[in-house]
Design goal:
Elements lengths: L20 H21 L5 E6 L6 E6 L2 E6 L1 H6 L7 E6 L2 H8 L1 H4 L5 E5 L2 H11 L5 E7 L8 H10 L2 E7 L1 H7 L9 H11 L4 H5 E2 L14 E2 L3 H15 L2 E2 L3 E7 L4 E13 L4 H16 L2
Parallel strand pairs: 1-4, 1-6, 4-5, 6-7
Antiparallel strand pairs: 2-3, 7-12, 8-9, 10-12, 11-12
This protein binds S-adenosylmethionine (SAM).
Length: about 300
C-alpha cells in the first residue's frame, strides 16, 4: 500500500509534472464525454456523480510544440460541464494540491464538492462502498502519472455496475518496469506489474525463455519479446475480462509535435463501462467511441 505521507517538493512521479499534447487530448475527450453523459441522463432520476481520483489542482501546465501553456485541468472542466453533475468528488494525495481543489468551492458556489486527501485506491474503495449504486450513476477519471491504480480498485469499480471509467493507462510505466531481460526485474517491479494487471500471467505472455544457456552454463534470464502491440493487447484483454464493455485504446505519444506524434507510447486512453445492461453500456461506449474517433 502506498504511504499517505506525500512530500509536495518531492513528487515520486515528477517526470511528467509538465504535460504535453497528450494532456490536452485526454482532457478534451473527458470534457466531451461529461457533457454527453449528463445530457443523456438528464431526463432520468439518477444522482450524477463525477469522481476524479487523481484530481491535481484544476489547472495543468503543459508544453506543446515547444511552448509552455496553462490549461484547465480535469476538475475545472468537470465543474464547468453543462448540464452539471449533482456531486463532485476530487481525490488527491498531495496536501498542497488538495488545498487548491478546496479553493474551487468558493469559485463554484452552489456545487456539491467533496475533496478527499487520500491515496486513490483507498478512497475509491470507500466511495464504491458508500453508495448502493441503484439511484446513482458516475463518471470516474483515472489519470495517474504512473502505475498507481491497483487491479483490486478496478474490481471494486466494476462491481458497482454504475460507474463509467476513463482510464489513462500508464503504458510507459509498464514498459519500463517489464525490463527487456527478466534478470533486471526485482521482485518489487514484478509485484507492481501484478498489482496493476491483477495477475502474474503477464510473465508468460511478455517473456520467452532464452533458448540457449550462457557460455558458462548460467541462466541468462528470459527475454521480453512481446512488442508494444502485444503488451497493449494483454492490457485490453484484462480490462475486457473485468468490464462489460471496453473501447480500443487511444494511444498517446510523448515525442513529436501535435501533428506528428512519435516515439514509444506513453499512455493508452481507455473507456470502460461497468453497467451490465447492454442498452446502458452500448449507449456509453457509442458515445465514448465517437469522442475517441474525433480526437
Ligand atoms: C496527472 S496528475 C492529474 C492531473 C489532473 N487529472 C488534471 O487534469 O489536472 C496526477 C495527480 O495524481 C496525484 N497523485 C499521485 N499519486 C496519487 C495517489 N496514489 N492517490 C491520489 N493522487 C495521487 C498527483 O499529486 C497529481 O496531482
Amino acid at each position: 500500500m502506498e504511504p499517505l505521507m506525500f512530500d509536495d517538493d518531492m513528487e515520486p512521479d515528477d517526470e511528467h509534472a509538465f504535460g504535453g499534447i497528450w494532456t490536452r487530448i485526454k482532457l478534451e475527450a473527458l470534457e466531451k464525454y461529461l457533457v454527453a453523459f449528463n445530457t443523456a441522463l438528464s431526463k432520468q432520476n439518477f444522482t450524477r456523480i463525477y469522481i476524479d481520483a487523481f484530481a491535481g489542482t484544476g489547472r495543468c501546465d503543459i508544453t506543446v510544440d515547444g511552448e509552455k501553456i496553462s490549461i484547465d485541468g480535469s476538475a475545472r472542466r468537470a465543474l464547468a460541464t453543462d448540464p452539471p453533475f449533482d456531486k463532485y468528488c476530487f481525490i488527491e494525495l498531495s496536501t498542497k494540491k488538495s488545498e487548491a481543489l478546496k479553493a474551487l468551492e468558493a469559485e463554484y458556489p452552489g456545487k456539491s464538492i467533496d475533496v478527499i486527501r487520500d491515496n486513490a485506491n483507498a478512497a475509491l474503495k470507500k466511495l464504491c462502498e458508500r453508495y448502493a449504486w441503484r439511484n446513482e450513476r458516475a463518471v470516474l477519471f483515472l489519470d495517474p502519472f504512473g502505475m498507481h491504480v491497483d487491479w483490486m480498485t478496478l474490481q471494486a469499480i466494476a462491481k458497482t455496475g454504475a460507474i463509467d471509467v476513463w482510464y489513462l493507462f500508464p503504458y510507459s510505466g509498464l514498459y519500463r518496469q517489464a525490463a527487456k531481460n527478466a534478470d533486471a526485474m526485482d521482485s518489487g517491479k514484478e509485484q507492481s506489474i501484478t498489482r496493476l494487471l491483477g495477475t502474474d500471467e503477464w510473465r508468460q505472455v511478455f517473456y520467452t525463455p532464452k533458448r540457449q544457456a550462457s557460455l558458462f552454463g548460467g541462466d541468462d534470464g528470459d527475454e521480453r519479446e512481446a512488442d508494444h502491440h502485444q503488451m497493449l493487447n494483454f492490457v485490453s484483454k484484462r480490462l475486457k475480462e473485468l468490464f462489460p464493455a471496453v473501447t480500443d485504446p487511444k494511444i498517446l505519444y510523448q515525442a513529436g509535435d501535435s501533428k506528428n506524434p512519435s516515439g514509444a507510447p506513453l499512455f493508452a486512453l481507455y473507456f470502460a463501462a461497468s453497467n451490465p445492461s447492454p442498452k446502458a453500456y452500448g449507449l456509453a461506449t457509442n458515445i465514448a467511441k465517437g469522442v475517441l474517433n474525433a480526437l
